[in-house]
Amino acid sequence: NHSRPLHGLHVLVTAGPTQEPLDPVRFLTNHSTGKMGYGFAHEAAALGATVTLISGPVSLPEPAEPNITTIHVTTARQMFEAVQQAYETADIIVMTAAVGDFRVSEVAGEKIKKAGRSSIQIELVANPDILAWVGAHKRTDGSQVLCGFAMETQNLIENAAKKLADKHCDMLVANNLRDAGAGFGTDTNVVTVLTPACGDTSTDQAPQQPNVEKWRKMGKTDLARQLL
Ligand code: C5P
């Protein structure tokens, strides 16, 4: 079908930040607004796909399209569980979420009190890397396409190439937080798109240099469509 080229495909998208609680009133998070991921969900739905959108806490309206199912999560571990439930039937998996790398090791049951203390120590422990997990568990026949994102402030291409290989992605979309019109909350993005040289992301063999394409500045919705 010409206007619905993704008809019959299941697209899984993660979007937004995660929130990691410290106590009943506080949390750790980041500046992600979910615009890029929600853009993917809307565009994939418009192109005919069945979409599962797994979203951290954002203030965007819940997609109204009948072919988008939105699952709301708060923490990285909840996002991981939701992805594990959904990934097997997904044909295209796009992980735009800015997942918290760390969570507080012991969440306080009551509000942490200042009580005259001039400093406190909070221990953080690593969260699961959801994208790496999917990369390690996706089908090996090439019928599942995995796209990761990387936001960097330095050494964009080197870091992105490493993520592409380490996390067995079929596409890695890199953006530099320092580029004008890129990053958190903006309606536009400036990305560099990396794909594996050999096309085989299922093995741990030393990666060849990836293909690297710098794209022009685009609206996030436009960008999602071009990437899809
Ligand atoms: O390594 P880094 O966090 O920069 O990788 C970014 C990519 O990995 C994004 O696609 C993000 O959604 C994904 N990611 C994830 N789970 C994590 C950390 C990152 O899925 N715990």
TrEMBL record:
Binding positions (CTP): D101, K111, P128, D129, I130, L131, F149, K163, K167
Coiled coil, from the record: none
Family: In the C-terminal section; belongs to the PPC synthetase family.
Protein known as: Coenzyme A biosynthesis bifunctional protein CoaBC
Domain DNA/pantothenate metabolism flavoprotein C-terminal, chain residue ranges per copy: 6-228
Protein task: Catalyzes two sequential steps in the biosynthesis of coenzyme A. In the first step cysteine is conjugated to 4'-phosphopantothenate to form 4-phosphopantothenoylcysteine. In the second step the latter compound is decarboxylated to form 4'-phosphopantotheine.
Region listing for Phosphopantothenate--cysteine ligase, in residue ranges: 11-228
Domain of life: Bacteria
